[in-house]
Amino acid sequence: xxxxxxxxxxxxxxxxxxxxxxxxxxxxxxxxxxxxxxxxxxxxxxxxxxxxxxxxxxxxxxxxxxxxxxxxxxxxxxxxxxxxxxxxxxxxxxxxxxxxxxxxxxxxxxxxxxxxxxxxxxxxxxxxxxxxxxxxxxxxxxxxxxxxxxxxxxxxxxxxxxxxxxxxxxxxxxxxxxxxxxxxxxxxxxxxxxxxxxxxxxxxxxxxxxxxxxxxxxxxxxxxxxxxxxxxxxxxxxxxxxxxxxxxxxxxxxxxxxxxxxxxxxxxxxxxxxxxxxxxxxxxxxxxxxxxxxxxxxxxxxxxxxxxxxxxxxxxxxxxxxxxxxxxxxxxxxxxxxxxxxxxxxxxxxxxxxxxxxxxxxxxxxxxxxxxxxxxxxxxx
Length: 381
Hints:
The protein is mainly alpha-helical. The protein has one domain (7-374). The chain has 13 helices and two strands, in the order E-E-H-H-H-H-H-H-H-H-H-H-H-H-H.
């Protein structure tokens, strides 16, 4: 009788051999991550002047650019659920968080072209992700299955929403503004303006403590979706469970929006819920396409068609952060034209260098991910 090896999902998209009795990978997560990364790399590669939708909203409101990282957080929450269902150890969790924090500081120094500790920005997306890995890992000590994570998400929503609402009531006019918001007080006190986003000049830090609270809501919603998916593994109920959870999140977001503004800058409760719901809808569609029981012929066909996106998804950490760092470096060097502009001119498509650069970046990262996936090499902290 042949011996087969099942590979299990890790928090960062990598895979390791599963122990007997432990759930294997859910292909749809990697597949959805792959499509997400195509969009993320494409948007990150658009040269200035960027369309309005590819620039973060200055305060309230939501643009396409505001949804990129929150979608990554939602899918990461689902991935963390798979990882901790497979009993990832605390030593690995602490090591990953520490490496992510240090990598975030190096990222900031390279992107900001300064290693001066007096002005080095301490927050960032990698640092926020490191805290999420630690928090979701800790919460898995008390929340084991889908019901527990649904309840935990509700508690986080009430806690974060209540905190922001009470703070809002103390502001002039009862509105959160750049001059009156919790990040301006909390993050400034903890970090100092010199170490904040934009040197504290904007009056908030989107990846500071207040932003992390909202990101925890989104990640928890994703973790609940991951546990729901695992509970329906091998059945046709998975997509229905996920869509039902997404509807609940969207409805809660609409209700929360009656009390709080929808904004990425402070990662407010309605934004956190809405972004989580959107990511879970995408995951449900992925499950419907790739993970429902099917005959051997269709199973083989869909696995081949999904392979490029799966390759990207299994190295999501490398592709997501690597593509952003690469564009930061290319745009900051070379003078006028910058290295990014020179590269765009050399790969222009139909006389359109900006389009050529986007296509080159997407295809380039897809090729890198494909080669690494072929050799089972995955970046993980």
